[in-house]
């Protein structure tokens, strides 16, 4: 089965935004720090999600991204499809040319599996993930780590300023 990095990162970014949207737009830099994903790559993904209407953007200080729809109306399948991905268990990307230009013996089995996985992902919304205890626990840990890293950075800035002033 093939679920690419782009699809995984899109779901991760959307879930991060859903978890943090209560305090306003969420910056790509904050998502990148919390999730360990390149901010440049996240910008590309966010652009695709925005074009489809799954995200909206806000410019200026305090700007970033918000969900374009209610989290209950956004399925994981829709997020993956929005970035041009899909779940495909075939070796031929559904082209039926997996065995020297012809369909292989198990092609239909893998097509059926792909449809089952997509159906499963269609029934999982961002809202259902936001309410999962394990997701909330990981989110809390990531927020604490980010706060600690930010505090360490501020402390370092203060030490540098004090050294320069003395």
Walk me through the structure:
- With 166 residues, the chain is mainly alpha-helical.
- It has one domain (5-90, 103-139): Orthogonal Bundle (Arc Repressor Mutant, subunit A).
- It contains seven helices and two strands.
- The protein has helices at residues 5-20, 28-35, 39-52, 76-82, 107-122, 126-130, 133-165, and strands spanning 55-58, 64-67.
- A two-stranded antiparallel ribbon has the order 1-2.
- A hairpin with a 5-residue loop joins β1 (55-58) and β2 (64-67).
- The chain starts with a helix and ends with a helix.
- The model has no long low-confidence stretch (mean pLDDT 88).
CATH architecture classification name: Orthogonal Bundle
Number of helices: 7
Instruction: Output the CATH class name.
Output: Mainly Alpha
Strand order across the largest sheet:
1-2
Strands, count: 2
Estimate the mean pLDDT confidence: 88
Q: Describe the biggest sheet? A: 2 strands, antiparallel
Our Rg estimate from Cα atoms comes to: 20 Å
Which strand-content bin applies to the residues?
Answer: under 5%
Order of helices and strands: HHHEEHHHH
């Amino acid at each position: 089965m093939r679920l690419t990095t782009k699809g995984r990162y899109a779901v991760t970014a959307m879930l991060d935004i859903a978890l943090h949207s209560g305090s306003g737009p969420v910056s790509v830099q904050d998502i990148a720090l919390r999730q360990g994903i390149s901010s440049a790559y996240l910008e590309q993904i966010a652009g695709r999600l925005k074009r489809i209407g799954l995200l909206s953007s806000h410019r200026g200080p305090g700007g970033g991204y918000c969900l374009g729809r209610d989290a209950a109306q956004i399925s994981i399948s829709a997020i993956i499809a929005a970035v041009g991905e899909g779940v495909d268990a075939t070796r031929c990307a559904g082209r039926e040319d997996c065995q020297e230009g012809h369909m292989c013996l198990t092609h239909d089995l893998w097509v059926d599996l792909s449809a089952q996985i997509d159906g499963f992902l269609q029934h999982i919304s961002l809202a259902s993930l936001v309410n999962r205890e394990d997701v909330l626990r990981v989110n809390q840990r990531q927020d604490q780590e980010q706060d600690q890293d930010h505090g360490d950075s501020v402390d370092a800035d203060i030490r540098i300023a004090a050294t320069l002033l003395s």
